[in-house]
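Tutorial handout. Part one gives the primary structure; part two gives the three-dimensional structure as tokens.
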Amino acid sequence: MYVEFDRDTCVGMFQCVAEWDAFEKNLNDGKADLAGSTEEDEDLFVVEVPDGEEFDAKFAARVCPVDAIEVYDDDGEQVV
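Part two.
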């Protein structure tokens, strides 16, 4: 399972930070950062979800008010 985070879309509500420890507040930019991620495209960050953190990753995606977070299963199918 992996997460794609569109940082450009992020509006800095930080609800994801409260739900999954992989997200961190970046008050300088007013946006969240996805720790340990790789920038796959401009402002598109991708990270593998560690075992046991799948629920938190999915919940972080669900609470994002602007849908900047997407979760995909190992087959590349979007689950959130």
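Part three, for discussion. Strands lie at 2-6, 23-26, 31-34, 38-41, 44-48, 69-72. The mean pLDDT is 98.
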